[in-house]
Design goal:
By secondary structure, this protein is of the alpha+beta class. Helix content is 26%, strand content 19%. The protein is built from three helices and three strands; from the N terminus they run E-H-H-E-E-H. It has helices spanning 6-11, 13-21, 72-76; strands at residues 2-5, 26-30, 35-40. A hairpin with a 4-residue loop joins strand 2 (26-30) and strand 3 (35-40). The longest helix has 9 residues, at 13-21. The chain is elongated, with a radius of gyration of 22 Å.
Length: 78
């Protein structure tokens, strides 16, 4: 993994994005002590799978009707 200061990232941003597109990760260092604060990583385009309901997965189904409405007061009183 490559690490760069904020100033370097600002100067070479387009080049960094090209590296990230190739699968590389780039760390961002900040401050006088060059403390790591962030990382630029490739975007994962895999489609998100359906969320599981936990222990009830496959045992229940949840459906909302098209005209489902709930006021804030109703929600807060639950």
């Amino acid at each position: 993994m490559k690490a760069m200061t904020v100033g370097e990232v600002k100067t070479h941003f387009s080049e960094i994005l090209e590296e990230v597109k190739l699968g590389k990760k780039v760390g961002i260092l900040y401050g006088r002590r060059k403390k790591p604060v962030a990382m630029i990583v490739p975007f994962n385009e895999k489609k998100q799978t359906e969320r599981k309901i936990g222990i009830l997965d496959g045992k229940v189904s949840i459906k909302f009707k098209d005209n489902f409405e709930m006021t804030t007061e109703e929600l807060c009183s639950l």
